[in-house]
Write a structure and sequence with these properties.
heterodimer, A: 6 helices, B: about 250 residues, mainly alpha
Amino acid sequence: MILFLKSFILAFAGSVSPAIVLNIEKRLLHWAGLGGALGYCIALAIDPFSGALSVAQIFTGTVTVGIYSELMARRLKAPATVFCVPGIIPLVPGVSAYQTMQSLVADNLQEASAYAVNTIFKAFTIAFGIMIVSAVFRFIGKIKIKPPDH
Amino acid sequence: MEQGKILDIAIKAGTLLLRFGAETYRVEDTITRICNSYGLTCEAFVLPTGIIVSVEGKNGISSICKRISSRTVDLTRISYLNDLSRKIAREAPEYDEVIKELNRISELKRYSNSTIIACCALTAFVFVTLFGGSFAEALTAFFIGAVLGLLRLVFSKSISFPFIEYFAGGFVAGILSWLINSFAPQINPYIIIIGAVLNMLPGVALTNGIRDLLHGDIVSGLARIGEALMVVAVIAAGTGIGLTLLFLGGAVR
C-alpha cells in the first residue's frame, strides 16, 4: 500500500512537472497529473516488485492513459494530446535505457544490444498503445450519429 | 467577408497550431473548417515544415503557402486554438474579432523561467527515484536537471540550428554526472544521466507522428518519427562525446 502511495505521488509529480515545461493550462494541470499517476499505478499493479517495467506493464499503463485522456478530452473540452503527452512520461523505459548505457560504457556490446532492443521495443509499445486507443475512439466516434447542424 | 481575409485567418490559425505542436490532421481540419464556415471550398496540405492552402469562392481561386521554421510544444495554445476553431465553425465571427483573438493567443504568457527550471529539476529528481536511485542520486539529478533547464532557456532564446540544444544537454549531463561520480563514487552516473535528459525526450514528436500515420498523413507521420529518432540520436551522441572526452582527458578513470 505504501509502495502504491509513493508511486502515485511520484508519478503525479512526474507528469505534472514535464507538463509545466510544455506549458499546460493551469486548470488542466492536476488532471494531467492524475492521468500519469493512474497509468503508472495500474502498470505497477500487474507486477509490483519488478525492477523495470515490462512490456506488458507499459502497454497496460499506456492504454489506461490513452483511455483516460480521450474521456477527459470530451469531459473537459480540450484536445486529447494535452492529457496524453504528460501521462505517458512516467512510463518511459528509463531503466532499460540506463542499463543500455551502462553496458555500452563497460564495453559489453552483447548485453548492450539486448538492452537497446528492449528499450526501443518499450518505446514503440507506448506509441502503439496510444495508437490503438485513439483508433478505437475514432471508430466509436464515427458510429455516433452526428448532430444535424454540422 | 472577403476571400483574402478568410484565407488570412485560416493560414494564421494553421501556422500557430503547427508551430505549437499540433498534429497534422488537426491543422488541416482547422483550416478546412474555418474556410467552410465562411462558405469557401478549401483544400489544405500540411507538412511539419509548411502549409499550402487553396480556396475556391466567388472571386475565383486563390492559394497561399507558408513555411514554418521552428516548432515547439505549447499545450495551452493548442487547446485555445481548438476552442477558437470550434467557435468560428459555430458562429462565423467578424475578421477583426478573430484576428484579435489570434493575437491574444500568440501573446499568451508562458510559465515564468524560474518555474520551468524548477520543473526540469523536479522531473529529474522524481524519475531518478522512480528508476530506483538513492536519495543522494536523486539530489544530484535535481541539480543537473536545473542546469539542463537553464540551458534549455538559453537555447530557446537564441535560435542557432535545430538539435543543438539536445546535443548540449546530453553533453552537459554526461560530463557533470561523471565529474560528480569522481568525487562521490557511490553515485551511479548512468541513472542520473537518464533522469536528467528525460525532459528532452521527444515524446510529443513520437506520439504526434504515430497519430499522423494513423490518420493517413504518411509523409508528415514519417517526418515526425524521423525527427524524434534524430533527437534521441543527438542526445546519445552528446552524452557519448562528453564521456569520451572525459576519459581521454583523464579526469575520470
